[in-house]
Amino acid sequence: MRRACGPGFLFFVIERMRSLNLSSSSRGSNELPHRLPAIPAWLLLVLVLAWLLPGLIGHEPWKPDEAYTFGLIEHIAKTGDWVVPTLAGEPFMEKPPIFFISAAWVLQAFGGVFSPPDAARLTAGCWMLLAMLGTALSARRIFGQGAGRWAVLLLLGCLGLPLRAHQMLTDLALLAGIAWGICGLTWAPVRPLAGGLMLGLGGAVAFLAKGLLGPGCLGLTAVLLPVFLPSFRTGRYALAFVLAFVVGAPLPALWMNQLYVRDPALFQLWFSTNNFGRFNGTAHLGPEATRFFYLKTLPWYAFPAWPLAAWGLWRAWRGQIQVSLTAIAPALLFFVINSLVLVLAADARELYAMPLLAPLALTALTGLVMHREGSRRWAGVSVLVMVLAVILLACALISGYALATGTPHAVEALLTRKTFAGWTPAWSPGHWLACAVIVILVLLLWPRVPRNTPAGFAWRWVLLITLTWGAIATLWLPALDFGMRYREVFVALKPALDKPVAENECIASVWLGEPQRALLDYYDGVRTRRLETMPDAWSCHWLLVQSRRGQMPALVNGVQPVAVSNRPGDDTERYMLYHLAQDVRTLWPASEPLPGKAPAK
């Protein structure tokens, strides 16, 4: 099924694009008539900050991605070693280091003002701003002045983005790199120097964020554009292509060279296993893709960008609007190529679809441009969004009050059944004040754009997302942090771990995950010797076990743990520290297989 969606499907899509009512002029689309409400720059900045700031600070590293990412950032901040990403003393070669390096710089700059995790998390906001800027410049080229601000709003309105945009994730750097790479391709036919510079830097950032996938899709897009569109078969585009390679190659080449010089085996591990191995499934690192995963994920993850994009392209096909094919083709073609790569990959997560949001936001602008007055249909849609906003705000306020005070008891009991089990209601005036500011801002901005247009719907949808996320990231933040962090787990273990540390005894571990190793190092200053990877771990008399769903190694049968800890509300994952009479090698049963990877979550 996946193989059927290969190059043949790609050629079909490109030929179908040619049948749309899209102008092939390379002069840009500034001359094409369109009608988008004007948004002042200061107003857009206020809305972006209201969307971006809540949730960036005020909580510990959350499981699973933030926890291990913070461990990698902290290593670079302490050691200055930018070549080999290192987690709790062990090389971690799944991703190149650009996000970790940038976050380490921010951590060093603002670590005295904010807590280390909060300071590092500010980097997520910086990369998101860069992604917005790249998307805006692409939209300006496609639709003319003022369209960039609407492209930013469409990007912020995607349902899957708010939570991920406020976490320490390398995918945010990838999103920024892709946005700037598409921007470079969009501008290359008319401004080859600027286009080549943006394409090269975007490709370099994408490479140093997550490896070959991002720049590979950008490169394939750049190569195929001249095949299908005569407007890209020019000396200007060729100049931009060459300049992009000259600008984009040095930084990735520098890192790869330094990594190879440091350790050829680590270079091979990164290059083969963590690029091609993750794609074809031989690495067994990520969650295995299920059938139609992205077909089931994108409808909610990219809403409302994808229906607006589909509607806009249908309008172009019907001749109701006209858009420059030269300008919009890079976004369309990249979306098709990246989608095919994701479908064919052996691993799948909703997180991997993040690079698709930038080209989707650009294409969705075709659904906003108007050549005539609005209709009652869009006014009705805007009213539905308003009703939804009222309902969600009421739910957020009631549940936030329940988490803060413990009443009403029925709501409080429902909320704390699993995720917030053990949560002690606590009133936080600062969070309520921040929520009130966001609510007032949304109320003031709500009527700013006429409601009887698709732009009016998009405007109110973004305000709805800002309101919902703002309420969650303020009223719910203390309780969410309580349910998603590991502080209580490792603070509780620290007194028991202090004894072997004080006596300079080694501590072995089995099935201890990457997030847990990073935060054990952060909270307790302890690095265990893993039985899975370190031969000297077998001589230890102390053993830390991360047990999932009661699974335990046979050597601890009948042995009482010195300490037991688990995350509040999590009855499937436990951490047990054992003091053994003999070393692990002596006690490990011959019939039991050697420990491999931790049991699946």
Describe this structure in words.
The protein is mainly alpha-helical. The chain has three domains: about 5-30 and about 60-365, no CATH class; about 375-485, no CATH class; about 485-585, no CATH class. The chain is about 60% helix and about 5% strand. It has 25 helices and nine strands. The protein has helices at about 5-20, 40-50, 65-80, 100-110, 115-145, 145-155, 160-165, 170-185, 190-210, 215-230, 235-250, 250-260, 265-280, 295-300, 305-320, 325-345, 355-365, 375-405, 410-415, 430-445, 455-475, 475-485, 485-500, 515-525, 585; strands spanning about 20-25, 85, 90, 325, 505-510, 530, 540-550, 565, 575-580. The strands form three sheets. A five-stranded mixed beta sheet has the order 6-5-7-9-8, covered by helices on one side. A hairpin with a 2-residue loop joins β2 (about 85) and β3 (about 90). α8 (about 170-185) packs antiparallel against α16 (about 325-345), α10 (about 215-230) packs across α16 and α18 packs parallel to α21. The two termini are about 30 Å apart. Residues about 1-5 and about 25-35 have low confidence and may be disordered. Keywords: Cell membrane, Glycosyltransferase, Membrane, Transferase, Transmembrane, Transmembrane helix. It is found in: Cell membrane. It is a multi-pass membrane protein. GO terms for molecular function: transferase activity.
